[in-house]
Amino acid sequence: MPTKTPWDDGSLCYGGDWNPEQWPPDVWHEDVALMRAAGVNLVTVGVFAWSRLEPEPGRYTLDWLDDVLDLLHAAGIRAALATPTASPPPWFSLRHPDALPVTADGVRLTHGSRDTYCAAAPAYRAAARSIAEVLAARYAHHPALALWHVHNEYGTTCHCPRTEAAFRRWLTTRYGDLDALNDAWVTSFWSQHYSDWAQVGTPRATQYLANPGQLLDFRRFWSDTLLSAYTEQRDLLRAANPAVPVTTNYVLGDWVPVDHARWAREVDLVAIDHYPSATDLGAEEQTAFAADLARGWARHGAGRPVPWLLMESAPNQIHTAGRMHTKEPGRMTRHSLAHVARGSAGVMFFQWRAPAGGAERFHSAVVSHAGADTRVFRKAADLGAALGRLAGTAPGRVQAAVAIAYDAASGWALRHPGMPRDALDHPGEAAAVHRALWHAGVTADVVPPGAPLDGCRLLVLPALYLASDATVDWVRRHVHDGGHLLVTWLSGVADEHARVRLGGYPGAYRDLLGVRVEQFHPLADDEHVPLSGGGTGRIWSETVHPAGAETISAYAGGVLDGRPAITRNRVGDAYAWYVSTRPDDDTYRRLLTEAAGLAGVAPACPGAPSGVEAVRRQDGLLYLLNHTDRPQRVPAAGLDLLTGATVDGELTVAPGGVAVVREEIP
Ligand code: GLA
Questions:
Q1: Which residues, in sequence order, are CB contacts of 119 under 8 Å at separation 6+?
Q2: Whose C-alpha lies nearest to ligand 1, atom 4?
Q3: Measured distance CA(560)–CA(529) in Å, rounded
Q4: Is 429 one of the catalytic residues?
Q5: How many CB atoms lie within 10 A of CB 542?
Q6: How far is the C-alpha of 282 from the C-alpha of 123, rounded, in Å?
Q7: What's the rounded Cα separation, in Å, for the pair 427 and 421?
Q8: Ligand 1 proximity of 316 Cβ (cutoff 6 Å)
Q9: Substitution site in 18, 113, 350 for ligand 1 pocket (most atoms within 8 Å of beta carbon)
Q10: Has 312 been annotated as catalytic?
Q11: 48 lines ligand 1 (CB under 6 A)
């Protein structure tokens, strides 16, 4: 009998990380009763429970987990059962000191937090497989089991001798011989030529700038190494019961530890953990971007569409630099439903109950230190009821005709300290483009290079620094098939090894764009260059020579006075735009609105007032999220699924509120 997942029957997943190992059984019963009251149907169990499951090597204590899963099953709540391998117990580290990770500075870390292991260490991998096998043997057919949740947020790194040896093996497979590696890494520079594989190491701390090709390949290698740690657990869990889907939760944020698009091929569900860092409207912008990223990985990374799920989010507070910011009333619901609008199979929180001690004792929780008689718990119960009303609607395809290309390796390559400016940031540029479109009301897909672009009218390359020949072909095919293109500064400058494509920037796309860039002029942090036609450019500028393109906006002042800043080239019936600076937010919004408009792309809900986020889906649902503190009127017709009210031409969305309209198809 295949195991049912919450999304199989059309219901949305709702719940979060639950840590019964931190509490006595009477609290488990209280928790499960509260979960039922809140409409919870899925909880993640056991993420960091290794020392409770295997207190000594080879001695397993699983009775408590039996009770927990039985209790959940009796209550009709399903489990995303985790393998606890993100936090090996102290006995493991003491027994296998050579499996502790080594930093780039050569410091071997000690036990005391979590994630202290080297993913290339055979002892760690063997111990991880063993505990996963024990769980698989015991629970693969447990009726509460809906999903295997392998590990937690793969992303640690290591530079130990074992890692170094594994890196060499990976390089041998990638390059075949040393000549190819020397060529890819341009080791003719600074006397770095390798004459024996034994000379090649991981990019440890060194005297001055490290080799960019070596750094980039190390990131790729490490992503693959972590992936193999995941897939070996996945394979044994799958073998125990092929009907149960397997996943691992992706960490998002400034730190992009692995190539999530590549990983999407190996999961049955893309799971993201999202914690916005902004406290203002930036939190909503980040939420929409994260959700669109996850949707892109789920739809395009895998080669086959898989569902995606918001696996962790904060119920009550937002982490910011230096303090926790309490979410304003309504915000938790809006953040949660913004993910659902964009296709998430549900909403999961970190965490269900706040612990009394431990490093994250003050992290937000549904059941806080104050108990359940709180605003956060009541809001969580309201959200559970709302998700119940949306049962049968998940996960729907989103209507989007703009695609933003996103590529982990381009982000890694731009972080090299030898770039012409510090803080160059491909994910940040992708987010800036997404933000500008979000403010224009235009929904975008965020896709890995190479993804099918059917239905895409405008493709945007935001500082997509690396361009392999395959990526260049992909972009060309889109334009030659009549698609519009918008390319921003730093895109297509280098090949997949981070070697500059010569002859003028951006080497990969010069002819498509009808421009040749002679030189970069990076700007200082406080520098703003006026642009003709209004607005300013920041961070970066360039000497652009038109070679067929028309100038849409020129630099107005400074050393580039009068030279093109933004250009547009006609290719067949479409346009290929080049943006050689980072326009300020308003200018970017206007520019992208124009580029989208010329490509025939309209806002998702043209009549929605500013501050109302609209997402239209192919299943006929229109999500409206009011991020303002005033009621907002939106043209719509159909049935509001959250209130049951008929909408007849116009709907008022409450301040900070959400409406989900099943639209009448005229
Ligand atoms: C991550 C982890 C959780 C927890 C939260 C705190 O997402 O997966 O274990 O540490 O962050 O924000």
A1: 125, 154, 156, 158, 225, 226, 229
A2: 350
A3: 9
A4: no
A5: 26
A6: 43
A7: 16
A8: no
A9: 350
A10: yes
A11: no
Marked catalytic residue, from 153, 285, 496, 613: 153
- Kindly give, in sequence order, each residue whose CB lies less than 8 Å from that of residue 574, ignoring residues fewer than 6 positions away: 479, 482, 483, 484, 485, 599
Query: Which of 77, 239, 87, 82 is CA-nearest to residue 148?
Result: 82
Residue 242: is the preceding peptide bond cis (ω within 30°)? Answer: no
* Chain centre to alpha carbon of residue 135: 28
Backbone angles phi, psi at 215, to 5 degrees: -60, -45
| Structural tokens at position 459 | 């493709």
Nearest CA to ligand 1 atom 5: 350
Residue with tokens 């290794």: 50
Q: Judge if the beta carbon of residue 363 lies within 6 A of ligand 1.
A: yes
The total of other beta-carbon atoms located within 10 Å of residue 474's CB is 19
The rounded distance, in Å, linking the Cα atoms of 464 and 430 is 9
Note whether 492 and 462 are within 8 A (CB). Answer: no
417, 504, 558, 575, 579 from 555: Cα distances, Å: 28, 20, 8, 21, 11
Distance, CA 363 to ligand 1 centroid (Å)? 9
Separation between Cα atoms, residue 243 and residue 502, nearest integer Å? 51
Is 357 buried (19+), middle (13-18) or exposed (0-12) by CB count in 10 A?
Answer: exposed
What's the N-to-C CA distance of the chain in angstroms? Answer: 42
Nearest of 63, 109, 65, 62 to residue 88 by alpha carbon: 109
Contact (Cβ atoms closer than 8 angstroms) between residue 118 and residue 111 = no
Average pLDDT along the chain, 666 residues, taken 10 residues at a time: 66 97 98 98 98 98 98 98 98 98 97 96 98 98 98 97 98 98 98 98 97 98 98 98 97 90 96 94 97 95 85 90 88 97 97 96 96 97 97 84 98 95 95 98 97 96 98 98 98 98 98 98 97 97 98 96 98 98 98 98 96 95 97 97 96 98 80
What is the spatial distance between Cα 360 and Cα 276, in angstroms, rounded to a whole number?
17
Tokens standing for 618?
């192919």
SS3 267: coil
Cis-peptide into 351, omega within 30 deg: yes
